[in-house]
Amino acid sequence: MSTNIEKTTEKVLELLDRLINESAKDTLIIVEGRKDVNTLRKLGIEGNIIAAKTRGKSILDVFGEVEKLGSREVVVLMDFDRRGRELTKRLVQGFERMRIKSNLVFWRELRRLVGREVKDIEGLASYIETLKRKTENNVMC
Known about the structure:
Helix 4 (82-97) links the parallel strand 3 (73-76) and strand 4. This protein has 141 residues and is α/β, with parallel strands linked by helices. The protein is elongated, with a radius of gyration of 16 Å. It has six helices and four strands. It has a four-stranded parallel sheet with strand order 2-1-3-4, sandwiched between helices.
C-alpha cells in the first residue's frame, strides 16, 4: 500500500516529466527569476526558459522576448505566493492581448500538489529530493 508521500512524489514526478516533454516540443517556459531557471535546468528541462524578473526587466520586455521568439504558446510558471499569483495574472492578460496561449496547467497542478510546502519554483528541486528520500525511507521500513 502506498502512502500519501509516495503518491505525491509520483504525481510531482509525472508532472515534471510532462513539463520536460512540453519543453522538448519548443514550448517556451516563463519563470520569475534566474534561480528558477537554474532549478528547472537541474530538474532536466532543456528548452527555452525566460526569467521574467531579472536585471530590471519589465513585463513589457518579457512580452517583447516572447514575441521575438515567435511563440504561440507559453507555460507560465511563477511562484505560488501572492506576488507570483499577481504576476501570473498580468502575464496571462498580456498574452491574451497578443493572441498567445498561456498554459497554466503545470502551475495550477504544482500549486495544488506542493503549494503549502513550496512557495517558489526555486524550492522545487530540494522538495523533490526530500520527497524521494522520504519515499525511500518508507520502502526500507
